[in-house]
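Hello, quick one for you while I still have it in my head. Could you read through the record and tell me how the tokens relate to the sequence? No rush at all, and the record is pasted right below.
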Amino acid sequence: MVDNPFVFVWPVDRDGYAIEHVGPTGTTVLGSVQYDVIRPKGGPLLYYRPLDEHPGLWRQFVETCSSIEGVLTFVREFGLLTDRETEPADEILRTAERIRRIVTLFDEGDRAGAARLLNLHPPRISEPLYWNDRSARFETRLVPFTLRHALLHQAAETIASNYQWRRCRNEGCPHWFRLGQGAHTIRREFCSNRCRVAHARRQKQEAAAHA
């Protein structure tokens, strides 16, 4: 693990995750309570930096998590949204739906509406002060408490700075990248040269097959 309070890191179980059906745990007026949880398989943990390595993760999360199968796909790559041992799949789906509504408002140009929705449950962030040897001064860092709060933080930054995003054009690539000042040019279509080359190779193969 990266033991640095000034950098947000998050664990992923290298052995993967599984859906476990839980219930009944009691009864309600509607009957027995049953739900699905996502449980890690107990393998060694791999730590990564979501904010630094995946700046468009919040958009990928929304696009991927539209079903329980999609939730499992996301979690296997990026981990659970909280630091609990297990997490109900419905909680992840609800988070995805909430951020999806924020995305819709933002993409429609309603930044104020997106901000109001996000502010109903804003991300929990710590702001530690640290000494930067390179700049020879104290600086602050915004460090989310969990991956859920990191995704909300990415949404908040987008709304505040009016960032624009684009999904990689390469078929099968789920990554989003930022456009504009301090990021990629508006003409950029692929998240990486690897995806650009793969797309060109696929087009060439398809053209040859139909020749």
Notes: Residues 26-30 have pLDDT under 50 and may be disordered. The first strand starts at residue 10 and ends at 13. The domain at 10-162 is CATH 1.10.3300 (Jann2411-like fold). The helical segments are 50-53, 57-64, 68-78, 89-107, 111-119, 147-161, 193-209.
